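re: the backbone from monday

yeah here it is again, tokenized this time
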């Protein structure tokens, strides 16, 4: 038996969850599954591995009158990182402004 190594296969799919009825409305979660899986086979044996992640995408709301709404879910980690970066940039901007103001005041006090 020759060594056989399969190329990793990418995973990118939308999954819909079980519908749940609450107060006349039916809701259904939707998530994206991404990642890869693969394996190899040799004369001495074989192996396989996979790496996947699941990210909530939206919730589909079916109204009693037949209307359908799609409510996007926020990616909490992405939002938190974005907020931290914005706060860091704001602090850096304020510090640069203070340094510039101090430099201008010092320049104004120098004797000619």
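seq for it, each position gets an aa:
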């Amino acid at each position: 038996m020759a060594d056989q190594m399969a190329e990793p296969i990418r995973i990118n799919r939308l999954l819909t969850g079980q519908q749940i009825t609450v107060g006349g409305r039916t809701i259904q979660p939707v998530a994206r599954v991404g990642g890869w899986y693969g394996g190899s086979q040799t004369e001495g044996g074989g192996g396989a591995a996979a790496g996947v992640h699941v990210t909530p995408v939206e919730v589909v709301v079916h109204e009693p009158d037949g209307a359908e709404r799609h409510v996007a879910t926020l990616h909490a980690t992405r939002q938190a990182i974005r907020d931290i970066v914005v706060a860091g940039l704001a602090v850096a901007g304020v510090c640069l402004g203070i340094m510039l103001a101090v430099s201008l005041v010092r320049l104004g006090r120098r004797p000619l």
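The beta strands are 4-5, 9-16, 20-22, 25-42, 45-62, 68-72. The two ends are 89 Å apart (CA to CA).
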